[in-house]
TrEMBL record:
It comes from the Bacteria. This is Molybdopterin oxidoreductase, iron-sulfur binding subunit. It comes from Polaribacter irgensii 23-P. NCBIfam families: MoCo_extend_TAT (TIGR04519), TAT_signal_seq (TIGR01409). Residues 758-788, 837-868, 869-898 form the 4Fe-4S ferredoxin-type domain. InterPro entries: 4Fe4S_Fe-S-bd, Asp_de-COase-like_dom_sf, TAT_signal_bac_arc, TAT_var_transloc_signal_dom. It holds the Pfam family Fer4_7.
Amino acid sequence: MALNKKYWKSVEELKGSSVVETLTKNEFVSDIPTEDFLGDKETLETSSTTRRDFLKYVGFTTAAASLAACEGPVVKSIPYVVKPNDIMPGIADWYATSVADGFDFANVLIKTREGRPIQIMPNKEAGGTTSARVQAVVLSLYDEQLRLKEPTKKGAAISWVDADKEILEKLNSLKEANTQVVLLSGTMASPSTSKVVEDFIAAYPNAKHVIYDAISEDAAVDAFEAVYGRRALPNYSLQNAETIVSFGADFLGDFHGGFEKAYVAGRKPETGKMSYHVQVESNMSLTGANADKRLIAKPSDVVFSLLNLYQELSGKSVSLQATPIDAEIKKLAKALRKAGSKGVVMTGINDKNAQLIALEINTLLGSEILDTSNTLNIRQGSFEKVQEVVSDMKAGKVGGILTINTDPSYTLPNAAEFTEALSKVDLKVALSVENNETVNAMEYALPTTHFLESWGDTQFTESGYGLVQPTIQPLFKTRQLQDVLLKWSGSTEDYYDYLKSFWTTNILDGSSWNKALHNGFYTKNINASGNLKSTSIAISTVVSALKESIKTSAMELNLYTKTGLGDGKQANNPWLQEFPDPITRTSWDNYLTMSMADARELGFSNPVKDNGAINGDYAKVSVNGVSAVVPVMVQPGQAKGSVGLALGFGKTFGLKEEMKVGVNAYPLYSGGQNIQYNVTIDKVAGTHKFACTQVQKTIAGRHDILKVVSLKDYNTVAPKDHKNGWNKPAYVSYDHKEVEAKTIDLWEEHNRDMGHHFNLSIDLTSCTGCGACVVACHAENNVPVVGKDEVRVGRDMHWLRIDRYYSSEVETREDAKELGLSTAATYQALETEAENPEVTFQPMMCQHCNHAPCETVCPVAATTHGRQGQNQMTYNRCVGTRYCANNCPYRVRRFNWFKYADNNEFDFNMNNEYGKMVLNPDVVVRARGVMEKCSMCIQKTQATILTAKKEGRPVNTDEFETACSAACTAGAMVFGDVNNKEDEVTALAEDKRAYHVLDYLQTKPNVVYQVKVVNTNEA
C-alpha cells in the first residue's frame, strides 16, 4: 500500500506555527497599495465619487491597470537590408558543441536566434547531460561586467601585437636562463589542447604544465593511478547495479561530474527491479535525498564506517573504532555480498587511502559496475603540485607564470600566499575569458574567447570525444587560447587547421570530419582487452594510514559544492544565484548547515517572519587558525556533531553589488580536504536575512500531494484497491454516499478528441531534484531575476519550482492522538523524524487544468483555456487583480510586481544591452502588473506544428517538447500529445502509477505525476 506519511517543508510546519498557518492561506503577503492610488480615507470621503462607486463604475481592474502601468513599451525592429545566407529570421539554428570550463563538462546543443546563442540543451545522441549550471552557462557569454574586452598591461590597454612581442622577448629570455615557467590551468579535457601545450613546452623546455582544480578530487585520481596505472577517474555503470553504497559521494551532484542518467536508468520499477541505494553521509546531499536508505554520521564516523565495511567484507580484523551505525554497516555488507559483481561502493572522501579502500572493496566484490576501461578524463588537478608551485614562487625559482582560466587568488586556501608570491615572478600573464582576482594581480591580462566563440575538442571519457565550434563571432577583442600558445610556440598554423589535422590523424580513423562536426561527438572503440589490470597494494599500510588521518573531534566540518553555484566560476550569473538550493530551498547565500540538536544546544534558530521571510543567527567557524563568520541554517538530516558549508560563494572582485553574496569558504579548505576536524563554533551577534522559499507557496498538508510506494507493494498490491491500494482514486461524499471524485463534476466535458491535446508526465521516481529544468524554463521563457530582497518576501518569478518535501511516519496530529500520544510526545515523534527525514522532490508548475479554477474568476478573461489543453495568458488583457492566483490550489502563478527590464533597481541581465542578447524573441518580455506562469512552452509546440505543416507531414511521434522536458537529464519529464496514441506520454497518462495532484478537486490537470517507488530492500 502507499506509505503512510506526513509531508512537510520546514521545521516550523512541524511545530504548527501560526505564522506558517497564515502563510499557507495567502498566496501574496503584500497587497497592491490601492490607497496610494485612490487617496486616503479623508480624500475619498470628501470626493464626489466614493471609493465604492469608483470601483463599481470603472472597475477595480482599471485602477490596478493604472497603478501597475501595464502598457508595454514599443520596440522598433529594423529588417535586414541584405539577409545573411545562413540566417533565417524567426527560425532557430542548433549547433552541436561541448562545455568544458574546468568544473562542468557536457556534450550540448546550442540554440541560436539571428546569430545569438540563447539556450543550451543536452546532446542526447552523444549521451550528453546538463545540470542547472550547464543550462545557465550561456549567460556568461554576455557578461559585460566580467568579460575581458581587450589586452591590458598593468591595467592599461595594449595591442595584441605589442603584447605578443613583449611576452615573447621575456619567454625567450627565461628560456636562455633556463628559469622555470609554469602554465597553470584547470582541467581542459581537450586532446588537441594538450598537444598544443606539449608543442609549447617543446619550444620552451623550461616550462611545465600544472593542472589545478578548485574543487579537488585528486585523491580519487591518485588512488586510481596507483592501482590501475592510468591518471583518470573510474567510471560507474550504475544502470546495471543492484546495490549501490556511497560514503559521502554526491554522485547525483558534482562527484566525478554526476551519474544521474545511469542511476535513474537502473531504477525503473516497471521492470520489477530497482537498484538498492544506501547513502552514508553527514550533510544532507542531493544524492542522500534520493537514497532508498540514508545513514547519517559525523564525518569521522563516515570514514570509520567505510573501514568497518571493509573489515566485514574482507574478514580481516583492523581494530577499528565503533560507530553508531555499525549495525547498519553489517546489513550493508550482507546486501553487497548478495549483489556480488552487481554491487558497488563509492566514496567522496578526498583522501587517497579512503579511495584505495573503496577500490579494494570493489575488487573483493568483483564489481562489474566499477568501469576501469572507459575512464573519466575530468578533474585531473593535483593540489600537491599547485602547492609546490607556490613554494617555488616564494623561493624565487619561478621566472614566469601563465594562468589559463583559473583563479587561485580566490580559490586556494592559501590564496593570499599565492598572490604575494607573484611579486617574485618576472613574467605574469593571465589568459582568461573573465576578469578575476588572479587576472587583476597579473602584469598582462589577455582576453581569450568564450567557448561559444571558439573551436576546440574534448575527451570526457576514454572513448567519448566531442567537438567545440563557434556559434557567434567574438564579441570583444579576444583571441583563441590555442592560437595564442601556437603563436608563442613559433607556429604559423591557425588552430582550426591544427584541430582538423589532429583529429584526422589521431582520432577519426578515416571517418568524416564534417559528420563528426555536425554531430558534435565521435565515439572511438577502446581497447578490446577491457578493464585495466590492477596492481596489488599494501592494504594493511593503507588502513593504518587512513586510521591515523582521522582526528575525531566534538565538531567537524564537511565542505561541499551547491548544485547551483558549484565551484563559484559562475558567481556573477544571476540565474544561478537566484536558483533555490534543492535541499534548503535557499538562494543568494551559503550558510552553515547544523543539526536541530546542535542548534538547540548552541542557541541557533531560524525564525519565520509573518511575510514568509526566514532569519538566522551568525556563527564564527574556526578551523586550523582560520575563521569565517557565516549564517546558520538549521537543516533536518544533518549529522549531530557536524556542520556543512558550501564553497564557491563570497566572490567579490569585479562582481555587481547584488552578486556579492555569501562567505568565501575556500580559506577553510585546508589541504584540499572536504573533511576538516577540530572545528569550533561560536555564536556571534547579528541577524542574517535569508532569501528562502521553503515556507512560501507551500501546499504541504493537502491531501495526496505526493504518493509513495515501496517496490514490494508496487509489485504485489493492486494500485486502485479501495482499502489497500497505493494509488487510490480520490473519493468524495455525494448524496450521502462515498463515490469517486471523478464521477462528480461542475462542468460538462468538452470534446478534446480533435487536434492535439498536450500532457506533461513527471515521474517522481526518476526526478532527482537537480533543477536543470528550472534554469531551462528561465532561459526559454525570459523569466526575470528579481534579486535577494524580492525572493525573501516571496516574489520570485520562477514559472517552475521544485518542491522539496520531508516526510514523517505519523501522518497527522489526529493520528497521533488516536495512538495516545500527548502533544509533547507528538512533537517529539515528528522532531525525531526530522533528524533524518525521507525526502521527495516534486516539480510544480501550472497544471493546465481542463477545469481550471483560475479561468472562472478572471474578470477580464485574461486567462483562458486553449483547445490543445494549455491554460493560456493574454498579457495585454491582464490587469493584475490576482484573483486567479488566489483561486489556484497549486500556487503556481506569479504576479509581476515591478518592471524588471531596463531598471537599475534590478541590475541583472535584462538591464544591459549585452545581457538582453540572451532573450528568446519568441516570448514577450512582460510589462509590470500582470500574472505570469508556465505556458507549457506554447511557442515551442506551435513551432513544431508549423514546421510539420511547412514540410507537408503530420507531427512525428514524440516530436513535441517543452524546455523542461528537453533539459531533463533523468527523463523524468515526458511531454507529448495524448491524442497521438503512439506518443510516450499517452501510455504514461494511463499508467497504473499515474495520478493528479489534489485530484479530489477535479480540476483535471494536464500535468500527470507518476507515483514514486522506493526500494526498501524487501522485494
